[in-house]
Design brief:
By secondary structure, the protein is α/β, with parallel strands linked by helices. It is about 35% helix and about 10% strand. The chain folds into 4 domains: about 70 residues, no CATH class; about 200 residues, no CATH class; about 170 residues, Rossmann fold (3-Layer(aba) Sandwich); about 40 residues, no CATH class. It is built from 23 helices and 13 strands. Strands 7, 8, 9, 10, 11, 12 and 13 form a 7-stranded mixed sheet that branches. The protein has a 6-stranded parallel sheet with strand order 2-1-3-4-5-6, sandwiched between helices.
């Protein structure tokens, strides 16, 4: 594309497809009258103005006045969010969770805005499409939420939607393929119009949802590639992300080879600095009208077992003997579905609402891990309610090489306990036990029964902590530009590590976080010498 001498092209940083689209427009602008309707007349400037202001393939020209975005204002309720949740059956559990936590979210928003200047922000147009919750995905995750199915993903989606809304952004929810098409395919004749459809600034989805979007809009998905944020519970490591590498090393699986920027994968826990930690909120208090009664709940000599499904109680040897041993010290309670063949001495409450689980945790001294499920939210809920967690060790560690759970997952991480994040919290809140070692289990139980612990909640898993984190990510994490870097280089602290120690572990020992954004700066002769 030759530049007009009177119209030098501006910098294209963050718009990798702009030049290609300009070439297309030069040849094709006469194929549809809508282009001339938008002012295209065959000149390079008219192509550029169309591709930057009607569509968004190119940067807006300096001096051009485009409609300004409205400011993002911290919301005082979820009043405007509920109608879009109410008519989507796939989001029913999410709707209920957000509703039950409304007062806590609103108060967290007020608290955060009192501590930080949140006024100079623009409200983003954000599409949220949880692909795995759609009927078309076939997973039935949304359906199973009320009958003992896994809740981890729905907890995270619920808290993300609440966070985006409280922060003052425009949240567009899609929970089906037709809804997705309606949002992404708004067109007049052959060319899209911003006046008829919303251009998203960010798209939050999961790997299932990404594939659905690729099917709906075909190759046009590339236009949105850098604004995707992909919720990915266990994370995606570099080996599994690059298609050529995946092919060469036979690392095929249903979730890999996406060729995204690694920071676009948003995880449940901070597994790896290669991905972005999104997290979730630990539910730990009832609404204000019941909080006094909640605080006065007396702790009983009881344990609550972490296991809703029959398979959690039955799989593996030694679980029965382990729970029998705990019963010698404490009354044992459970919240298992009616298919579970559990010991007769267990007082089983069945599948109950989160509100009732909070009460049980507040009454109990020990939350008993059985080894599965892995890395769920519940152990942190126990700690936040002042209940110690027995965290079973896993030997040998589980990975994609020896576990059906991790088979096909795009990570080679080895899991050494039921809850690695809780493992790092340690005693007196989290007690590591080999469930086959009676002496070890007895030692932990004796210590727990002789201690009193206050509720413990890491800030990053509070409503305010999540609001703070997501706000910073929205404002600072720009994956469409190669020139903008964040965090600032002034934040760098250099740690010397022993050979073979990962950046993550070396920084963790110093109370710091490994930040790969600094690698290019650090990886030079001059800076290494310093």
């Amino acid at each position: 594309m030759k530049e007009d001498e009177n119209f030098p092209l501006p910098p294209m940083d963050g718009y990798p497809n702009c030049k290609e689209k300009l070439k297309w427009m030069k040849d094709m602008w006469r194929t549809d009258p809508c282009y001339s309707h938008h002012g295209v007349n065959g000149s390079l400037p008219s192509f550029f103005i169309y591709l930057s202001e009607v569509e968004s393939w190119c940067p807006v020209l300096p001096g051009r006045v485009v409609p300004t975005m409205d400011p993002a204002v911290i919301k005082e309720s979820f009043k405007g969010l509920y109608p879009s949740l109410a008519n989507k059956g796939q989001l029913r559990w999410i709707h209920q969770r957000i509703q039950s936590m409304e007062e806590v979210w609103v108060e967290a928003g007020r608290s955060l805005s009192a501590k930080y200047n949140l006024t100079e922000r623009t409200a983003k147009q954000i599409l949220v499409h949880p692909g795995a919750l759609t009927d078309e995905s076939g997973t039935r995750i949304a359906e199973g939420a009320f009958s003992g199915g896994p809740l981890g993903e729905q907890v995270q989606w619920s808290d993300l939607i609440a966070t985006l809304y409280i922060l003052g952004h425009h949240v567009h929810l899609s929970a089906s393929i037709p809804a997705l098409k309606a949002f992404l395919q708004g067109k007049t004749n052959g060319c899209p119009s911003r006046h008829l459809k919303v251009e998203p600034n960010l798209i939050y989805t999961d790997i299932v949802g990404l594939r659905q979007i690729q099917e709906v809009i075909g190759s046009s998905w590339i236009k949105y590639k850098c604004i995707f944020r992909i919720l990915d519970t266990f994370g995606t490591e570099p080996d599994f992300n690059h298609p050529d590498w995946v092919k060469k090393h036979h690392l095929h699986g249903p979730f890999g080879g996406l060729n995204m920027t690694l920071l676009q994968f948003y995880t449940m826990f901070p597994h790896t600095p290669d991905n972005t930690f999104l997290g979730f909120v630990v539910q730990h208090q009832l609404m204000s009208k019941e909080s006094e009664q909640f605080k006065s709940t007396k702790r009983q000599n009881q344990a609550l077992v972490y296991g809703k499904r029959a398979t959690f109680w039955q799989e593996g040897r030694g679980r029965q003997a382990y729970v029998d041993l705990i019963h010698k010290y404490l009354d044992v309670h459970g919240t298992a579905d009616n298919t579970a063949a559990i010991p007769s001495y267990v007082k089983n409450h069945g599948i109950i609402k989160g509100h009732d689980v909070q009460t049980l945790l507040r009454q109990s001294k020990v939350f008993v891990g059985l080894g599965i499920p892995l890395e769920g939210p519940a152990p942190l809920e126990a700690l936040a309610n002042g209940c110690a967690f027995l965290n079973p060790k896993i030997q040998p560690p589980l990975s994609r090489l020896n576990s059906e759970i991790f088979k096909g997952k795009p990570t080679i991480r080895e899991v050494t306990s039921q809850h690695p994040y809780a493992e790092a919290i340690g005693e007196p809140y989290v007690w590591m036990v080999d469930i086959h070692n009676e002496t070890e289990v007895k030692r932990a139980l004796t210590a727990i029964l002789n201690q009193t612990i206050e509720p413990y909640l890491p800030y990053e898993f509070s409503c305010e902590g999540m609001l703070q984190r997501v706000n910073v990510l929205i404002e600072k994490q720009d994956l469409c530009s190669s020139t903008r870097s964040w965090p600032p280089f002034s934040a760098l602290q250099v740690v010397k590590a022993e050979a073979g120690t990962s950046c993550k572990k070396a920084c963790q020992r110093m109370g710091l976080i490994c930040e790969p954004a600094f690698f290019p700066n650090l990886n030079s002769v001059t800076n290494l010498a310093k």
